Amino acid sequence: MRLKSLVMAGLAMVLGVAFSAVTAPAASAAGPRPNFQLPFPCGQTWTGNSSASSAHQSWEIDFNRGGTADADLGDTVVAAAAGTVVISAHQGSANGFGNLIKIDHGGGWFTYYAHLRVRSVSAGARVSQGQKIGEVGNTTKPGNSISPHLHYEVRTSDTSYPANIQKAVFNGVTFGYPVQTVTSRNCGGSTNPYTPQEVCGSGYSVIDSAALGTAGTVYLLYNSGNGYNCVVTLKKTSIGTATATSAYLEVQGKSRITDSGNYSYYAGPVRASAAKTCVKWGGKAGSYTYDSPFEHCG
């Protein structure tokens, strides 16, 4: 989709040879289909196209959103269903998939996520539905030139490639081949793809937290290397949809610092130097608010 130059027509044959080698051994039959969701955060809208590349086999999909070629570069990619990562690697010269994540969902069902700019999980990791596994990119075989997109496939282990590629089903509805615009319902268990450490940055560790009902959690972190505290509020509901969320940090004797707005995943990070000084911290998500006393004075 939006390819800067089409991959060679013969690449389909190359992919068939290369990936049949890494697909799980054939089973007698695939088990029940998992409840797959769109491989993007809840509430986002993406357009899938199964016919834009000469290398495509039936039922493969390239996903994009935005009006320009690079509009979705770096956008979050999430697991379509829970499972175990069996491949997390750059495929190098083997094929045109570039950075690839393959997830085993059990029962002979697998999903593939190709051309990623970033791979956020390693082989062997157990992932939950809706968990961030990478970012949209344009990595591919040396010599190929493609614009950013997510190449997505569903395969089974009950037959050989390419007959094992299955039609994609999202939220119980079969994708409208060859082209359809779909809104993600991948809100699976209200999984936020971010962690407080990821938001605050390297060197920060969680030292306290407070639940904001079922809507989120506000975290207090500390960096012993520079003496800074950090506060972030992570949402647990309406993931991927902008809703009112806030986080604040007040170092005793100084003005309060607040980050407040309509956010899709989190408010913050709010950072301030607070070594050997008491802090007050808190935040809001949905209708729930937390306000601490002055504490953590060490």
Protein model, in words:
This protein is mainly β and 298 residues long. It has two domains: 11-187, Distorted Sandwich (Glucose Permease (Domain IIA)), CATH 2.70.70.10; 196-291, no CATH class. The chain is built from two helices and 22 strands. Strands 1, 2, 4, 5, 6, 8, 10, 11 and 14 form a nine-stranded antiparallel β-sheet that branches. Strand 21 (279-285) and strand 22 form a beta hairpin. The protein is elongated and about 65 Å long.
CA distance, first residue to last residue: 55 Å
- Domains counted in the coordinates: how many? 2
CATH top-level class of the largest domain: Mainly Beta
From the alpha-carbon coordinates, what is the Rg to the nearest angstrom? 22 Å
- Count the DSSP helices: 2
- SSE sequence, one letter per element: HEEEEEEEEEEEEEEHEEEEEEEE
**Outline:** elongated
Which residue ranges are poorly predicted, with pLDDT under 50 across at least 5 consecutive positions?
Answer: 1-28
The level of helicity is: under 10%
CATH superfamily of the largest domain: Glucose Permease (Domain IIA)
Count of extended strands: 22
CATH topology of the largest domain: Glucose Permease (Domain IIA)
Please state the average pLDDT score. 86
Q: Architecture of the largest domain in CATH?
A: Distorted Sandwich
Q: Tell me about the biggest sheet?
A: 9 strands, antiparallel
